[in-house]
Amino acid sequence: MLISPAYAQAPAGGGLGSFEPLLMIGLMFVVMYFVLIRPQMKRAKEHKLLLEGLQKGDEVVALGGVVGRIAEINEQYVTLEIAAATQILVQRPAVQVLLPKGTIKSIK
Predict the structure, then answer these.
(1) How much is the pTM?
(2) Which end of the chain, N or C, is more open, meaning fewer C-beta atoms within 10 Å of its C-beta?
(3) 3-state secondary structure of 81
(4) 58 near 98, Cβ under 8 Å?
(5) Helix (H/G/I), strand (E/B), else coil: 57
(6) For domain 55-108, is the CATH number 2.60.40.1510?
(7) How far is the C-alpha of 19 from the C-alpha of 59, rounded, in Å?
(8) Which pLDDT tens digits describe the chain residue by residue (108 residues)?
(9) How many CB atoms lie within 10 A of CB 47?
(10) Is 56 exposed, middle or buried (0-12, 13-18, 19+ CB in 10 A)?
(11) How many Cα atoms sit within 13 Å of 84 on the Cβ side?
């Protein structure tokens, strides 16, 4: 016979064996939690605290970059005064940033 028969070799003993893919999936979940989920939850909590602390007279920035002073506020909506005798009604979650007092006068 010119060619000797080839037999299958036994698998190499790697220690973890079949647990390695599960360990990698678990590690990926931990990384995703600290990189994506945890910061998003922190931002949502900060935004909720911002919305709960809104008061009449606060200067805010709403979605779309609308800057105004809160004229009226209730549970669902905020009335923003964006110019003299010009008011708009926006949903409360649309308020994104609370500005320091006097910001509107400094940007006009």
Answers:
(1) 0.70
(2) N
(3) strand
(4) yes
(5) coil
(6) no
(7) 56
(8) 678 887 777 666 555 567 888 999 999 999 999 999 999 999 999 999 999 999 999 999 999 999 999 999 999 999 999 999 999 999 999 999 999 998 988 887
(9) 14
(10) exposed
(11) 2
